[in-house]
Amino acid sequence: MNILLEVSDNFINKNEVKQIVYNPISVISQVIFWTNKEPEMTEIILSLIIKNDFQILNGEEEDKVKYFVQNNIIKNWQNSESAPAQHLKTIHDQIIKHQHKTKILLKLYQVLFSEKILTDDSLEVQALLQSKLLVTEDGQLKVHNPIYKAVFNQEWVEKELKYINNPKPYSENTKNKKYIENFLKVLYSIPAKFYPFPIIIFLLLFLGVSFPKLKEWIVSTTQIVPDEIQPGDESIQKPISAGERILITTEEVGQENLQFREAKKSGVEAMASGNYQLAVNYFEEALQHYRNAPETLIYLNNARSEAKNQPTYTIAAAVPITQDLAAAQAMLRGVAQAQHQLNEAGGINGVLLKVVISDDGDNP
């Protein structure tokens, strides 16, 4: 069954609808006018009408649906956590995630406000189509529906372009400043090996810690690796690696996994030779065979950042691999998860996190 037809039938057949809507088919028709048959948003709006007990009498369909959409969908969507707001934010993120191409996409989209654009196979056009912001009609690009047109308007484009041209650093939240300072004092007093890295990093960002302060804390606990020192440098006494060598020879718990080991080994060899995309492929293959491998996950994220040739902040995580492998792996799981989540979110203002692992033998 067609998804839109199924959504419509579900709405019509609900007992609650009969109590609040005189003509369900007419209401659906008005909702579809606003969504242009986009099934997810159509279902969201119809569900909200029921949830909010929004009464629509005969002849009121056009005005009531318009009022509902403008006040519950379009208005203040960026500051809302509602289902329609999340839907719109997903489209927003699909545009912004392209980072270096975001400005081009916004400029291209901006042209639609005054000119016609023919559909083609260019990466920029395909990216806009994949975001679902645009659709193709009669060989031309069109904004998918009136809701998207109202939300992603000229003002939105100009605001996003202004941010790209003048990115603002993470601001200090003065309301939380006292809590942040106390929290940081506690962190500075705890040995690095006990840090739950993912929780701490994202809690600090949530509280409003500026990135320089966050970076300062990371540096103090993990040691920034100077640019002139490369992994494998003979001048470094402690074994370190960003993916060019294996420090943890046995990541598997229980039965050894030869397929995992072989793929990981090939990934490290590719990393050492500078073939970063090949390294990405091998590390991904390794993690398919055995997922609970923090060293491999860190190397994968390092390889991805190198393959993308994006700027990175490099930190070194010192762990006692030779003295306490279990503790080292537990610590690296936190680091790997934090790095992965941070990089998947686009890093800090487009700068990804690269992790160099150092075996300190529990003697930092």
Please sum up the structure shown.
The chain has helices spanning 3-13, 15-20, 24-35, 39-51, 61-74, 83-96, 102-111, 123-130, 146-151, 154-165, 177-188, 197-207, 211-222, 258-272, 276-289, 294-308, 325-344, and strands at residues 134-137, 140-143, 240-241, 312-319, 352-359.
Give a written overview of the molecule.
The protein has 17 helices and five strands. With 364 residues, it is mainly α. It has helices spanning 3-13, 15-20, 24-35, 39-51, 61-74, 83-96, 102-111, 123-130, 146-151, 154-165, 177-188, 197-207, 211-222, 258-272, 276-289, 294-308, 325-344; strands at residues 134-137, 140-143, 240-241, 312-319, 352-359. The chain is elongated. The strands form two sheets. The protein has a three-stranded mixed β-sheet with strand order 3-5-4. A two-stranded antiparallel ribbon has the order 1-2.
